[in-house]
Known about the structure:
Metallo-beta-lactamase, Chain A, binds zinc ion, alpha/beta, globular, seven-stranded mixed beta sheet
Amino acid sequence: MRAWPKGARTRTATMRIVFLGTGGYHPNERRHTAGIFLPDLGLLLDAGTGTFRLGRFLKHPELTILLSHAHLDHVVGLTYLLPFLNAGTLRRIRLLGTAATLRAVDEHLFSERLFPVRVPAETAVVGNEPLQWHPPGATGRPLTVTAFPLPCHRGGSTGYRLDGPSGSFAYVTDTGPDDSYVERIRGVDVLIHECNFPDDQHEWAERTGHCYLSHVLRIAERAAAGRLWLTHLDPTLTGPDPLGLDTSSTAARLRRSGMTIAVAEDLTEFTLTASSS
Ligand SMILES: [Zn+2]
């Protein structure tokens, strides 16, 4: 596994990652709903209510969106893209997801009874085969995008892994306590994983098809992830340590072993950087 960069190593490639929204279900005063943007690649993972923030980070007029699934907290922001198209900061949108997700967006979100204007987007279905993707303006090696199913959420969800010159990261959201995808995310430099609930709500997590802290920590440990960002928090959790991370003995042990673990906040950003060492 490539180490998280530090010190004076020679940097050869970078990938900037911005959390546009870190909540699930509905926004609250602190968190909008799911969205992660990679400005250098023009790549958005999910389009929740945080999508209205996209404008300040856009660097390319082409936007590619990977959808985990079609629940509203992950797609409603597709209807927020019109101002960027109108302003000319966006000219081309590609929407990727499973066939069922794309169909749900097309038939329901963009039903004129729900929203009056159909946002123009090319669509492509993700399947079992990894995609080789050249981001706009990029030269050199393409990124490899691998989709994998997350069956433990009602309606299903899709996880994504990206492997590129600057390292690897995986995005796993809206899945119940399940370990079927551990091999798909093995050795990633960064794991961005939903953690909707603290441990004392594990029964509610199982009922709603979401995760609780100890389960996510076990997944990150088994996958040997280098860094773990926790996102998609229950919007009713508004305290200073909403998931109990500061008092978790498992988290303390993993941190001692070198794993970086943090709860993502809206507009948190970090850069994944490969080194030549
Ligand atoms: Zn969600």
